[in-house]
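Try it yourself: sequence plus flavin-adenine dinucleotide, in.
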Amino acid sequence: MKIPETLKQNKKSLFSFELLPPLKGRSIKEIYDTIDPLMEFKPPYINITYHREEVVYKKRTDGLLEKKTIRKRPGTVAIAAAIKYKYRDINVVPHLICGGFSKEETENALIDLSFLGIENILLLRGDPEHSTNRFVPEKNGHHNALGLINQVSDLNNGIYLDEELENSSPTDFTIGVAGYPEKHIESPNDLSDLHFLKKKVEAGAEFIVTQMFFDNQKYYNFVNACRKEGITVPIIPGIKPISVQNHLNSLPKTFNIDLPEALVKELIKCKDNSHVRQLGIEWAIAQSKDLIKNNVPVIHYYTMGKPDNVYKIAKAVF
Ligand code: FAD
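Structure, out:
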């Protein structure tokens, strides 16, 4: 079922979560071990992230560095299909990114997803490669999520890249996109970010999933700003439980977010990561209860492949 319809049909706030494909060489059992305990909270759908290849430098025996391109977490499309067929009541929302894809490769991935009966997708630009700080599209790839949305909208209208195709059948994808309550890191200001978010919705996005935030007021302000701008689609809050001391500095730097002072003070007091994990659970429970009180349609939890803290949060909240 289409995500916006699922959300409309439910009066209560729902539970959902995001999975990372396992590292290359690991088993899909890791995915099932993450999903199984969380089934108790009846997620209507599960997101599966996409990970582009990375350039790494390996030291050779002669001391020189050898450049290698590796994809550490392949398998997004296959995992989406495996989940769809193992857990029949759950929808899957695979992510697709611009980075590393030409338009032809994107089209082929979309055809695979369509044949698998996958109807919902989250379309993203992807981050710059680790070795650069500037997003570089593939030759004949998209520069931003908007280009990718336009391609999927075209396909939904039966317009493929090869204009000579005859009797081409339209796909039926429902498109979700990312939104940033604290602004995307590269955006010059909030208004500009909102302007491009609106463009994504006008191009066909039917729901928005937010970047993680730790202060709910930032989410409420963002939703209000979107509504004022005429963005009416569901805006799904993304919650990540803090789990290691290092998050104190790595999360603000990586995701362009602020940690509230009250959380920082408590984090600094933690003696080890088991205390941090407990604090992260308690903070996320408080955030979740407040979001539910404010009637959010669903909460999207970032599991990062470790479901135990999300399980404890869901147990306390749903
Ligand atoms: P865009 O919407 O393309 O925006 C990127 C920047 O360009 C913004 O600053 C925006 O304001 C600006 N912009 C947008 N459109 C235009 C335009 N037409 N002209 C000029 N500027 C423009 N990354 C992954 O690699 N894999 C994942 O699975 C993944 N999942 C994610 C899930 C969620 C919920 C979120 C919030 C992020 C996820 N990301 C993922 C990270 C995401 O790829 C990065 O945040 C990326 O830097 C931006 O992606 P976007 O789709 O928001 O980009």
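One thing you can check immediately is this: The chain is about 40% helix and 20% strand.
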